[in-house]
Design brief:
Largest sheet of chain A: 2 strands, antiparallel
GO molecular function (chain A): transmembrane transporter activity
Number of helices of chain A: 11
Helix content of chain A: over 70%
Mean pLDDT of chain B: 86
Order of helices and strands of chain A: HHHHEEHHHHHHH
Organism (chain A): Nitratireductor basaltis
Oligomer: heterodimer
Shape of chain B: globular
Largest interface: A-B, 42 and 42 residues
Number of strands of chain A: 2
Membrane topology (chain A): Multi-pass membrane protein
Mean pLDDT of chain A: 87
Strand order of the largest sheet of chain A: 1-2
Structural class of chain B: mainly alpha
Number of helices of chain B: 13
Number of strands of chain B: 2
Largest sheet of chain B: 2 strands, antiparallel
Distance between the termini of chain A: 43 Å
Low-confidence stretches of chain A: none
Radius of gyration of chain A: 20 Å
Radius of gyration of chain B: 19 Å
Keywords (chain A): Amino-acid transport, Cell membrane, Membrane, Transmembrane, Transmembrane helix, Transport
Distance between the termini of chain B: 11 Å
Family (chain A): Belongs to the binding-protein-dependent transport system permease family. LivHM subfamily.
Shape of chain A: globular
Low-confidence stretches of chain B: none
Structural class of chain A: mainly alpha
């Protein structure tokens, strides 16, 4: 186990973490402002990836694809908010879970109908292909570094948006008292649609960026969705800071666990057993982490609403 | 609880059970054994959803992880049968078995232990946290099953010959159906007894008003934990039967889609109602069968119907047929 490998895996963990952050930020924003649990958030991730891959294949440009993914996910988000989600705000969580579960079925099957069952592939743009060298002689793909950069930029932008702008002020006000800000003359329905579309666009962005790293296929959003849930449970629902911290924690734990556990177990076990047991435990690691954190802080690390 | 037994809801329950029993008998007379399998599927899913209904309907515990318990029951059947088949001892020199009674016991106890461990953590929270935590724990078991190669990993585990029940020829579809039907009836009776017991009253009171429950001196935590464990055990028995029906168990039985489907069954039929899961399973399996025959994209239409039910038809099938639930 060399230092280079460790650095490489830490970078991988960070890249995975910021991607989770894009998902978790949208989820937690929507939950914080509207009190809604949205299982279909993973579908918006998928919409972003499919929009990016198909538009990039059609125009030959990754960047147009990226813009298309933001537009498509935001549009899909706005449409489902207008048609479905807004009827669910004052229902209980069970109804929200069920309705958004139905949306997953509709999105997944609809996408399969449009694009077929075969995965699409999305190439890394030429500008970001290639690698930079790391200390110790190995190299690391520029694209993954760019993903980390985008994630950090979004985190900074989002916190500025929420703490410094008029929209952010309304979002914060909506989190604490929705009747009051409606009474003050803020058009709360439009605000909700806007926040939902913003969360959707973040998921779409994550989908587009991940689409260049793995195949674009139906159902790709669901594993990410579950991890994003773990992130916001760990970080505290409704807290952007918690989402960022939780994402990085989960990203690093997941990535490093997969590498370090089989290595560590290999020290006192035979390699094949260490590999299979290590892999099995590594797949459970973040859930164990979640259980530990919740055992001490049931509301998560940075609980927003007490 | 001396209550009038001849209510509209009880009549509907008996009618539904009668129809479920009559269907396969007619099908066998007409030599259409496929419909027997369909009815068996309904009975098993109804049993699994009745288990969930205990936690979700009576206790208000929205568990999005019940597929884990279904899968644990399924894997109990698969693993014990595999060991009985190849003769290798399981652990501590114990051998596998093909006896369903032992399999159900092992499955239910394992699921109960897992439910106790996860419930202890999950029940410290409530609302949306509970939903997400149960989901996360179920995913943990799902990924464990996928990355554990000893029992098939992602490919799952085949049960070459359906497990046996003393005195019943389970290889014959009708006998297996009757067995599943009998277990379902026992499960429903158990649900009804539990619902009308003092335990059930406390559980439902905790759902409706936690403060009032605390005011009469009952702490909800232990009652909920007990309900969660019993609920998991019932679903696990259904899981073992499900594995025997398909003669196959795989991680997909543990997946969160399955958890979602179980919730759908409960809500489609009517939350907290005795025959809710049964009605839900009937509608769901028929729907799957009819739409699946028409288009390969049937899940799209299932999603649309589901959406319509959530948005416009609250109370489910039983709610439509028997009117609103009487709380009490």
């Amino acid at each position: 186990m060399s230092l280079t490998l460790l650095i490489e895996q830490i970078l991988n963990g960070l890249q995975f973490g910021v991607m989770l952050f894009l998902m978790a930020a949208g989820l937690t924003l929507i939950f914080g402002v509207m009190g809604l649990i949205n299982l279909a958030h993973g579908s918006l991730f998928m919409v972003g990836a499919f929009a990016c891959a198909s538009v990039a294949a059609w125009t030959g440009s990754f960047w147009i694809g990226l813009a298309a993914s933001l537009a498509a996910a935001a549009a899909a988000g706005a449409v489902i908010e207008l048609l479905v989600i807004r009827r669910l705000y004052d229902r209980d969580h069970l109804d929200q879970v069920l309705a958004t579960f139905a949306l997953i079925l509709i999105f997944s099957e609809g996408t399969r109908w449009l694009f077929g069952s075969f995965p699409l592939y999305l190439d890394i743009p030429p500008l970001l292909s290639g690698a930079v060298s790391l200390p110790g002689g190995s190299s690391y793909p520029i694209y993954r570094l760019a993903v980390i950069g985008v994630g950090i930029a979004v985190a900074v932008g989002l916190s500025l948006l929420i703490s410094r702008t008029r929209l952010g002020m309304r979002i914060r006000a909506g989190e604490s008292d929705r009747e009051m800000i409606a009474a003050l003359g803020v058009d709360i329905t439009t605000l909700y649609t806007l926040v939902f579309a913003l969360g959707a666009a973040l998921a779409g962005l994550a989908g587009a960026m991940v689409g260049a790293l793995q195949s674009v296929q139906v159902g790709m959003g669901e594993p990410v969705l579950i991890l994003a849930f773990v992130v916001i449970v760990i970080g505290g629902i409704g807290s952007i800071r918690g989402a960022l911290f939780g994402s990085i924690l989960v990203g690093l734990t997941e990535t490093l666990g997969r590498v370090l556990l089989p290595h560590g177990l290999g020290l006192f076990m035979e390699p094949s057993a260490a590999a299979s047991i290590g892999a099995a435990i590594a797949s459970m690691l973040i859930y164990i982490l979640m259980a530990l954190i919740l055992a001490f802080r049931p509301q998560g690390l940075f609980a927003a609403n007490g | 609880m001396a209550r009038n037994l001849i209510t509209r809801e009880n009549l509907i329950t008996v009618l539904l059970l009668g129809a479920l029993l009559a269907g396969p008998l007619v099908a066998v007379a007409l030599d259409e054994t496929f419909y027997v399998t369909l009815a068996t599927r309904i009975a098993i899913l109804a049993l699994a959803a009745t288990g969930l209904n205990l936690a979700l309907g009576l206790g208000g515990l929205v568990s999005f992880g019940h597929a884990a318990f279904l899968g644990i029951g399924g894997y109990a059947a698969g693993i014990l049968a595999t060991h009985a088949f190849n003769g290798e001892p399981l652990i501590l020199g114990l051998s596998g078995t093909k006896n369903m009674l032992i399999i159900w016991l092992v499955g239910a106890v394992s699921a109960g232990i897992v439910a106790a461990a996860t419930g202890l953590i999950a029940l410290r929270t409530s609302g949306v946290y509970f939903i997400m935590i149960t989901l996360a724990f179920a995913q943990m078991i799902y990924y464990f099953a996928i990355s554990w190669p000893a029992y098939g990993g992602e490919d799952g585990l085949s049960i070459f010959v359906r497990n046996g029940f003393p005195g019943v020829n389970t290889l014959q579809p009708l006998s297996f159906f009757l067995l599943c039907f009998a277990v379902l009836v026992i499960g429903l009776i158990f649900f009804a007894v539990l619902k009308n017991s003092r335990f059930g009253a406390a559980l439902q009171a905790g759902r409706q008003n936690e403060t009032r429950l605390a005011a009469v001196g009952i702490a909800p935590f232990r009652i909920r934990l007990a309900a969660f464990i019993i609920s998991a055990m019932m679903t696990a028995v259904a899981g073992a039967l499900f594995a025997d029906l398909n003669r196959f168990v795989s991680p997909s039985m543990l997946s969160w889609h399955m958890s979602g489907e179980l919730i759908v069954l409960v809500i489609l039929g009517g939350t907290g109602r005795l025959a809710g899961p049964l009605a839900g399973a009937c509608v769901y399996v028929m729907f799957e069968f009819l739409l699946g025959g028409m288009t390969e994209h049937w899940q799209l239409f299932l999603g649309l119907v589901l959406l319509a039910v959530v948005l416009f038809a609250r109370g489910g099938v039983i709610g439509l047929l028997a009117g609103r639930a009487r709380h009490g």
